Amino acid sequence: MERTIHCRLCEHQIFSFEEGTVCGLTHRKPDFQRVCNKIEFGETFKEKITEANVAYKEVTQNKTKVYRFFTTHILLGIGVLIAIYFGMDYLMGFWDQIHGKAILVYAFPFVFLGFAFKYFMEATKALAAYKNELKKALYKKNQVDTIAELYHKPYTIDITFEEEPNGDLTPNINLEIKDIR
Fold first, then answer.
1. 8, 9, 13, 16 alpha-carbon torsion, rounded to 10°
2. How far is CA 113 from the centre of its chain?
C-alpha cells in the first residue's frame, strides 16, 4: 500500500505541486515503515470514510436495476433474432410472389439484425460500467478500511438514502469512529 494513502487521511497532509502529497509536519514525502507515529485522524478521515462508503452503497444499490436492464436487453436481442429467423420464411414466400423484383426485401433482416446487435451492446455496456464502478468503489472502501484497521480505529456507518422531489438521492449518514469525535 502506498504511504501517501495514510497521509490523505491525516489532518497534517498538505499538497505540493512539486512533490504531490507531503506531510505537513516534515514537509517531505512519508518515510515511515508500517504506520506513522504522527498521524492525526479527524474530519479528513471522517470525510474519506463517508465518501468511500456512500460511493460503495450507491453502486451496490443499483445492482438489481443493472441486472434487470441487462437481462431485458439480452432477451430483446434474442427475441429480434428469433423474429428474423421466422420472418425469413415469410420473406422467402413473398420473394417468390414478386418474382425477385423487390431487392429491398432482403434488407429487412439486416436492419433487424442491427437492432439485435444494439440491444446486446447496450446490455453488455451497462453491465461492464456497473462492474467498473463497483471495482473502483470497492477499492476505495478497502483502502479506507485497511487504514482504519491498521491504526485500530474501527468504525460503524449507517447509510440510508432519501429521495428528493427531483429524483436525486440524498444520503443520511450516521458514522461512529472509535476515539474520534
1. 10
2. 30
74 in Cβ contact with 120 (< 8 Å): yes
pLDDT digits (tens, 9 = 90+) for 80-114: 999 888 887 777 776 667 665 666 666 777 888 99
Is 155 in contact with 49 (CB distance < 8 Å)? yes
Q: Report residue 16 CA to chain centroid gap.
A: 30
How distant, in Å, are the alpha carbons of 5, 119, 175 from that of 24? 14, 53, 26
Answer yes or no: are the C-beta atoms of 21 and 13 closer than 8 Å. yes
Residue 122 has pLDDT above 80, yes or no: yes
For the chain, the first-to-last Cα distance in angstroms comes to 27
Pairwise CA distance, residues 158 & 84, whole Å = 51
* Closest to 143 (Cα-Cα) out of 52, 23, 34: 52
Q: What is the pLDDT of residues 133-174, one digit of tens each?
A: 999 999 999 999 999 999 898 999 999 888 888 878 888 888
Distance CA 128, CA 147 (A): 29
Which of 130-134's residues contact partners 24+ apart within 8 Å by CB, and which partners?
A: 130/59, 130/62, 130/63, 130/66, 133/59, 134/59, 134/60
